[in-house]
Design a protein that fits this description.
The complex is a heterodimer.
Chain A: H1 6-14, E1 15-18, E2 23-27, E3 30-33, H2 39-48, E4 58-60, H3 70-74, H4 83-99, H5 114-121, E5 129-132, E6 146-149, H6 152-161, E7 163-167, E8 170-177, H7 186-197, E9 205-210, H8 212-216, H9 219-227, E10 236-238, H10 243-249, H11 258-268, E11 281-286, E12 293-295, E13 303-305, H12 319-332, E14 347-350, H13 358-368, E15 379-382, H14 387-395, H15 398-405, E16 408-409, E17 430-433, E18 448-451, H16 454-463, H17 469-475
Helix pairs in contact in A: 2-6, 7-9, 13-15, 13-16
Chain B: E1 6-13, H1 21-24, H2 44-47, E2 79-81, H3 94-102, E3 106-109, H4 114-121, E4 126-129, H5 132-144, E5 149-153, E6 158-160, E7 166-168, H6 173-181, H7 185-190, H8 193-206
Parallel strand pairs in B: 1-2, 2-3, 3-4
Antiparallel strand pairs in B: 1-5, 5-6, 6-7
Bound molecules: iron/sulfur cluster (SF4).
Chain lengths: 476, 211
């Protein structure tokens, strides 16, 4: 019998009941809650007169709507200027109080983006099934957990039954072998992968990322990659457990302790794809082919290496593709054919659940240290992923480096990743962003987003346009 | 949830691949704590020329006359025809809420993003996947004939064109059953409460630190 993939193992361990039609009732170990996708689920619960199945399996934190300036933040929920945002954050607070759900509220120093907070607290662990009403739940797959985004109806379903009805996906392996060049990060790897397989390349699959490159990455880097599995069309991304995973979890506040820790570690070590496991699809990538990436269009698959040029309409292979390129160029205010390094920027955003962990901030800070943000840049901001990341960064003096360079140093939250709070692009403004989506209007109505790594965003802030971090490092 | 058995309606062609959830309903409308009222802002960025805000009077806003929902011949359409990878992006259920609130009951496209596809079924919206050549042909038909309608028979799993031609489609049996009967799957899962508890007991023994 062929061996099992990690996904097979995680799936099999969570089937409560297999149904005849191929779907299964799947047990869910952990549920993360934020303010945007939960109010209607709580409302559903109240209307039906139902209760939570297992409260301890839930953890809530507000992130999408919270303001990131300390002045607005200081006054707590009442201080949120936008009344609709305030109501949403308040509703989460009320709902958590009513149902006794643990919430790292807006004033808690552990508050942050759910996908940064979950791993950081050790709430999400290897071998678990993890869900959240948010597509970037795939992030937690870096831990060797089956983590998926769900809709609000499913949020309500998990709240009341601790289960989901699902069909098993197919297995996909993306193996990246070799050694990454200097200046190429996890973000470049995942953007490159999406450019290769397309935004629907992983649809219907769970993607496991493997190979030498992944093994050599830190947990932060692995989270960056799994985070964007959804941009490749896959609901879940995975990385097999190894010693990197285990040392990351050691001493996390909610990680198992004492005897449990030992037991957990020996179980976690089994959470790898077997050598003879069969994958339905295998994609092989050579690390040497990956340059620092920059997205040029309005879909994450519209990405090229920094030394390349923006595509022209004729590059499209089909009529639909040509039409997509045309629409994207129009929206992005590009003609096609221009060099990426000639693209000038208005704003810089370093943050989001893709790239707001301590390692990201360290890399960005090292890039800007002792330099000044270009006068052409209207705003350059750094938004840490959580209160704890912010604290750690301040301990290391990163905030000072950023401030001295001319960056704004903000309070944790989603911020300009999707611009639900006051942080947004104005129509026509162009932004180098470390976030995950460059959809039309994502960072503000008419705003233009280029997705890049933290170093690439940082260097672009200094120069006012994109540069290849690889050469730039040498000149500096 | 409203059941679907047979639905017939005007087809609205949205000729664009990778329509993402931000395009279906922009984020400023996600601040609502309700499930309804999103219809007037469906495809807001494409439909209007300015940036919409929640609670605004849309009748006073400049509309984009070229956008398909604003064209006279597609008024009161309820079958949305779209291209590849429809609904990609976020998990927000506001996307199907906005589509149903506007009046759509059926979507026809070559492919869908997984989470969106799944969310449709929870909200009485039927997403049908057809070969891209068939979808391309339906786009042509829709453009050719004003008032082009399709009849969708979920039980039989067929789409009937005005000339009587039938196109069959696939759908998973559990989802079909729920949609045909407008069933709430939470209630169905709760009938398995004993099994869920038994599973938990077993896991507690094996992996005590998870509980
Ligand atoms: S940071 Fe961006 S992508 Fe991540 S959860 Fe927040 S809004 Fe979503």
């Amino acid at each position: 019998m062929a061996g099992k993939t990690l996904y097979d193992k995680l799936w099999d361990a969570h089937v409560v009941e297999q149904r005849d039609d191929g779907s299964a009732l799947l047990y869910i170990d952990r549920h993360l809650i934020h303010e945007v996708t939960s109010p209607q689920a709580f409302e559903g619960l109240h209307i039906a007169g139902r209760e939570f199945w297992r409260k301890e399996a839930n953890l809530a934190t507000p992130d999408h709507n919270v303001p990131t300036t300390s002045s607005e933040r200081e006054q707590g929920i009442e201080g949120i200027v936008d009344p609709i945002s305030r109501l949403q954050v308040q509703t989460l607070d009320n709902n958590c109080n009513k149902h006794n759900i643990v919430q790292l509220g807006m004033m808690d120093n552990r508050q942050g983006i759910v996908h940064v907070v979950g791993p950081e607290q050790g709430f999400t662990q290897p071998g678990m099934t993890i869900v959240c009403g948010d597509s970037h739940t795939s992030t937690h797959g870096a831990m060797g957990a089956l983590a998926q985004g769900i809709g609000t109806s499913e949020v309500e379903h998990v709240m009341t039954t601790q289960c989901l009805v699902q069909k098993k996906m197919k297995n996909m392996l993306i193996r990246i072998d070799g050694i990454l060049a200097e200046g190429v990060t996890a973000k470049d790897v995942v953007l490159y992968v999406i450019g290769k397989i397309g935004t629907s390349g992983g649809t219907g699959h769970t993607i496991e990322f493997g190979g030498e490159v992944i093994r050599n990455l830190s947990m932060e880097g692995r989270m960056t990659i799994c985070n964007m599995s959804i941009e490749a069309g896959a609901r879940a991304g995975l990385v097999s457990v190894d010693e990197t995973t285990i040392s990351y979890l050691k001493d996390k506040p909610l990680a198992p302790k004492g005897e449990d820790w030992e037991k957990a570690c020996s179980y976690w070590r089994t959470l790898v794809s077997d050598d003879d496991a069969q994958f339905d699809t295998v994609v092989e990538i050579d690390a040497a082919d990956i340059a620092p990436q920059v997205s040029w269009g309005t879909s994450p698959e519209m990405v090229v290496g920094v030394d390349d040029a923006v595509p022209v309409i004729e590059n499209g292979k089909t009529e639909t593709q040509k039409e997509s390129i045309k629409l994207a160029l129009e929206y992005m205010g590009l003609n096609g054919g221009e060099k990426i390094t000639d693209i000038r920027l208005d704003k810089i955003f370093i943050g989001s659940c893709t790239n707001s962990r301590i390692e990201d901030l360290r890399l960005a800070a090292a890039t800007v240290k002792g330099k000044k943000v270009s006068p052409d840049i209207k705003l350059a901001m750094v938004v840490p992923g959580s209160g704890l990341v912010k604290f750690q960064a301040e301990q290391e003096g990163l905030d000072v480096i950023f401030r001295e360079a001319g960056f704004e140093w903000r309070e944790p939250g989603c911020s300009m990743c999707l611009a639900m709070n006051a942080d947004k692009l104005e129509p026509g403004e162009r932004c180098a962003s470390t976030s995950n989506r460059n959809f039309e209007g994502r960072q503000g109505f008419g705003g233009r987003t280029h997705l890049v790594s933290p170093q690439m965003a940082a260097a672009a802030a200094i120069e006012g346009h994109f540069v290849n971090i690889q050469n730039w490092n040498k000149e500096a | 949830m409203e059941a679907i058995t047979i639905h017939e309606g005007i087809v609205v062609p949205l000729d664009r691949a990778n329509v993402d959830t931000d395009l279906i309903i922009p984020k400023q409308f996600l601040k609502s704590i309700k499930r309804t009222g999103f219809g007037p802002n469906l495809f807001d960025q494409l439909r209007y020329l300015d940036e919409g805000q929640p609670g605004q009077d849309n009748s006073a806003r400049p509309i984009n006359p070229d956008f398909v929902l604003n064209r006279q011949r597609y008024q009161s359409g309820s079958v949305l025809l779209a291209r590849e990878n429809f609904g990609c992006g976020s998990s927000r259920e506001h996307a199907p809420w906005a589509l149903t609130d506007y009046g759509f009951r059926v979507i026809i496209a070559p492919s869908y993003a997984d989470i969106f596809y799944n969310n449709c079924f929870k909200n009485g919206l039927l997403p049908i996947a057809l070969d891209s050549e068939v979808v391309a042909r339906l786009f042509k038909e829709t453009e050719k004939h004003s008032g082009y309608r399709l009849k969708i028979d979920l039980d039989q799993q067929i789409i009937v064109e005005p000339n009587g031609n039938q196109i069959s489609f696939e759908i998973d049996s559990f989802r079909k059953h729920c949609l045909l009967n407008g069933l709430d799957d939470i209630g169905m899962t709760l009938e398995k409460a004993d099994k869920i508890s038994a599973y938990e007991q077993k896991r507690k023994q094996q992996l005590p630190w998870q509980f």
